[in-house]
Amino acid sequence: MTQITFLHGARDRLQAIAAWLARASGEGKQVLVYVPASERSGELDILLWTKPPTGFTPHCRADDNLAAETPIVLAPGLDDPRHDGCLLNLSDEIPPGFSRFRQLIEIVSVEDSDRLPGRERFRFYRERGYPLEARDISGGT
Q1: What pTM was estimated for this model as a whole?
Q2: Ordered per-residue pLDDT tens for the chain, 141 residues
Q3: Domains within the chain, CATH numbers bracketed
Q4: Whole-angstrom Cα distance, residue 34 to residue 26?
Q5: β-pair partners for 32
Q6: Cα(97)–Cα(128) distance, rounded to whole angstroms?
Q7: Is 61 helix (H, G, I), strand (E, B) or coil?
Q8: Most buried one in 17, 76, 94, 114, CB count within 10 A?
Q9: Contact partners, residue 96, CB within 8 Å, separation at least 6
Q10: Contact (CB, 8 A) for 15 and 114
């Protein structure tokens, strides 16, 4: 069953996601980032190229030729995932087929436009019996 981790209280969701992905990459973790909105995908792409300030987080888009070799992949859909390890949700909806993954990461900011849909997703997972972990990252990720 998919282990779901909610990291809540982020001041800025995209910044927190970029920081989490940088750490995951440093640990050698493979992460598929579900980001169906092309504008958000572009914003995250830029952050991953510029954070940390002295480097970048190796990543590519799902349709890139190097996607099979790249640890962090930004995907607008989940029809053909490259792996079933870790999925990070950068959507306000339940990711389709999330239960194929061993781990799902949800990062939620303090903004109502992000926090309220995050609560709905948490409730959805809890009602279906998924193992949940919630951590407050308001002091930093």
Answers
A1: 0.94
A2: 999 999 999 999 999 999 999 999 999 999 999 999 999 999 999 999 987 777 789 999 999 999 999 999 999 999 888 788 999 999 999 999 999 999 999 999 999 999 999 999 999 999 999 999 999 999 875
A3: 3-136 (3.40.50.10110)
A4: 20
A5: 73, 87
A6: 14
A7: strand
A8: 17
A9: 77, 78
A10: no
